[in-house]
Amino acid sequence: MTAFTPPIAPLQLSQGIVIQNANQRDAAAAQKTVQAALQNLGLAQDVVCSSGKAAATNLQWVLKNERITAWMPELNTFELSERLNLQSRTVTDDLAREIWLTMLVSPVAWVFPSADELISAVRMRLFIVQAARKTALSFHTSEAERPSDCWTYQEETGFTVLPSSSLIEALIKATQPEATGLVYAFSCYRATEYILLLAIAQEAQISNPALLANLQKQWETRAVMSGRFHEVFLRETGCMDAPLPISYYIPGDRVWFRNPDDASSDVAGFEGSWVFYLGSGQFSNFWQRNKPFTLASKCVDVYQWRNGTTRDVNGEWHMDEELVEQLVDQTMAQPDEVESITQHMFRLRDPKGVYALGGCMDTSRESPRWVRPETTDIVLPGMY
Domain residues of the chain, as ranges? Predict the structure, then answer.
């Protein structure tokens, strides 16, 4: 067998995608798989492959420097689809192109143990965006509803799936009105968990049926929620000490917009807003899915929470959501005011518990863990 020799490439501006291969045979196979994926999307000529820094059999793919400068200057990915005339909102291949291109310019290497795991990661991001665009819910912080034909609830186990129901179908019924004709009550955080779980389950159905069976068994017995869900299923990229660039997003990222106003952030459910980046400069809007947020409209929305906080008849603080919606609509009709608010909000957030000069932008993004049978790092709690 001829020894595999990766091409030599000049130093790049980004860390891009790295696959850690055990040997030269795996490296050759990985290069072939990734090259085919890039070729199918018409991106191969824009990408450089080189040997990784840690080991000769590791491979690294990055976008060419001149493409980064032209398409995503200063790692601003918001305008990528417009610059390349990608129809990411309606054309699956264009959404896949946007995912690949934004991963290829990542300032933090996206490291995978195999090319197959990379292919699964891209596909899960596609599933996340597609589901988030279809999701429509009724916002509620203290109440929750699920379709009774496939879900049941117990305080100690949360919402679990009836044994006769498919987890994938149950998640779709709970979040996508076309499946039932009804809209169910959710918090934004729980909604993002359902969409992430749906994407993981859909990918497991394709590439790891054993994982899907375990997910099904887990949710028939006990739901994994909140901090535990994050630990089990998600990988977080970026942190307060090493924040991601403020304009750098990959379609499928779970994103938090923090409420930087001390007073209104005490209203339950309005500490911040969990959304997905959909690509094309848009963020998910589960409450009005036909009006996805832009960066500006999301900044205005979170900003106006401070002006929608009122006391109810019992003297308790709550959010007047109709008033917030009116204020947002009024503001969006005033370009100068939109610009002013966006400049105020489009800053990295302060640390937890601090309300000073920070804006609403988080320092990290979240995405699913590995799912392939040989390399998955999803370890279920074992409560089933």
Answer: 17-105, 130-238, 254-365
